[in-house]
Design goal:
The protein is mainly alpha-helical and about 450 residues long. The protein is built from 19 helices and 2 strands. Helices cover about 75% and strands about 0% of the residues. It has a two-stranded antiparallel ribbon. Strand 1 and strand 2 (about 105) form a beta hairpin. Helix 5 packs antiparallel against helix 16. The longest helix has 30 residues, at about 110-140.
């Protein structure tokens, strides 16, 4: 008897989404907070920003290496667990280094920087790469909606920045060191629980636990298992090698635009405190709470839009929102009014989740399921290079104000506007027909059967 197709994610699907959520929160918190709020206690924002960039780039190199090995890696899930353990243990140790108020910084700056570097490398690989590969394997057609839910983690983490700052800094009023470990503890617990759940309740493929790809219960267990086994075999012989992937212009268009989104969200948010504080009358905590609410709505809404109209159109709409954020920010600086700045931050929040959503989504949307890890393994690392440079770029732009944060913010918003306009142009040039033509060429050369599997992609 034919089973009915389910529109939900299924219990196992929700478990995977929770693991992704916890990993993405870890990615934001363990990298962002030391640079954005606690920088004065760890050597300053500029050197920490450079360290973040270097660590993230090392993580990117690891991603590229892993992408070439997916056909031979027996379990992405267990690889994610190993790297996740490294990230969380390093984060615990990093947060436990005490602050000595007599010297105004942590007692062992060298050890902190070493741990911060390890955290950046590991959490970049675990929190936004390997768990996203699992999402693409579980939800190849509904990845936009799934990622839209999971990436609520980004605005959530940024939105509670003000609360975190208050919790961490409140002891300073009594002459006590900042409560670093106490303020990090909820996030450390969330990361630990997420990793434990990943160990015991997540698998590489839904068919391994009697579930179905995209939670499509119209498939029979026998057909689903056969499709999984065929996919695993096809991954070993994927035609989308690193050379073929890098030689495809659509890969570069997608990677650059995803990178712009990461700079325009995660990069800008590393200096959110400095930017908002430059405008009198704006409450940083309230602005960040607004970011959390708008970000949750935007992450889900853009994910639904992605599934409904296709990733290309959704990315063009999203870059349009970035253009609006840049314009409003420029107006705020020119007028000194806080309201346009607050709305600009709301716009940034709307696409914050999409900044990590689209690298997964576009790789699954316009390529075959068996080719997804290989293509994602190139697009995501390239976009992560942009993200890794984001904090350094934004800090440098803020410095153009000569000490006046509001003037530095103007440079940031002009850059945001530039990226938004260029992103719209690049995605308008993206052609799914050209991707299929390349796929046909490579498959024919490899002696594989040609078909119309990519014709129906939105």
């Amino acid at each position: 008897m034919e089973q009915k197709k389910s529109l939900g994610f299924g219990a196992r699907g929700w478990i995977l989404i929770f693991v992704m959520f916890s990993g993405m929160v870890s990615f934001m918190v363990f990298r962002n907070y030391p640079v954005n709020i606690l920088a004065d206690f760890y050597g300053g924002a500029a050197p920490l920003g450079r360290l973040l960039t270097i660590g993230s780039i090392v993580g990117v190199v690891i991603q590229i290496v892993l992408s070439r090995m997916f056909g031979r890696i027996k379990s992405v899930k267990w690889l994610a667990v190993i790297i996740g353990v490294i990230a969380i243990v390093a984060a615990y140790c990093m947060c436990l280094i005490p602050i000595d108020m007599s010297i105004g910084q942590c007692t062992n700056l060298g050890l902190f920087k070493a741990l911060f570097f390890i955290v950046n490398v590991a959490v970049t690989t675990y929190g936004v790469f390997l768990v996203s590969v699992l999402a693409g394997q579980w939800f190849p057609r509904r990845k936009g909606t799934v990622m839209g839910v999971a990436t609520i983690a980004f605005p959530f983490a940024n939105g509670i920045t003000g609360i975190f700052a208050g919790s961490a800094m409140s002891p300073l009023a009594q002459g006590m060191p900042p409560a670093v470990f106490k303020s990090f503890l909820p996030f450390l617990i969330l990361a630990t629980v997420g990793l434990i759940v990943c160990i015991f309740a997540v698998t590489d493929y839904p068919e391994q636990v009697g579930a179905y790809r995209d939670n499509d219960k119209s498939l029979t267990p026998e057909v689903a298992k056969a499709m999984m086994e065929e996919e695993i075999e096809n991954k070993r012989t994927t035609v989308w090698t690193a050379g073929h992937t890098l030689a495809t212009r659509e890969v570069w268009f997608a990677a650059i635009v995803c990178g712009f989104l990461l700079i325009g969200s995660a990069g800008v948010m590393t200096q959110s405190n400095a930017i908002v504080s430059a405008f009198e009358g704006l409450n940083f905590t309230l602005v960040m709470l607004g970011v959390a609410v708008a970000g949750a709505i935007g992450s889900y809404a853009i994910g639904v839009l992605d599934t409904a109209v296709g990733t290309k159109k959704a990315m063009i709409v999203t870059m349009g929102i970035m253009v609006l954020a840049g314009v409003l920010g420029i107006v705020a600086v020119a007028t000194g009014a806080g309201a346009p700045l607050a709305v600009s931050f709301i716009c940034i929040a709307l696409y914050m989740g999409a900044s990590s959503n689209f690298s997964v989504s576009i790789s699954a949307q316009y390529w075959r399921r068996e080719d997804f890890p290989s293509v994602f393994g190139i697009i995501n690392p390239i976009s992560n290079i942009f993200e890794a440079c984001g904090p350094t770029i934004v800090i440098a732009l803020m410095a153009t104000g000569g000490g006046a944060a509001i003037l530095g913010a103007r440079s940031v918003f002009i850059f945001l506007l530039f990226m938004g306009v260029l992103g719209v142009i690049l995605m308008s040039l993206f052609s799914k027909k050209h991707v299929k033509a390349k796929d046909d060429k490579y498959r024919e050369a490899a002696g594989k059967v040609l078909d119309d599997a990519l014709l129906d992609r939105k």
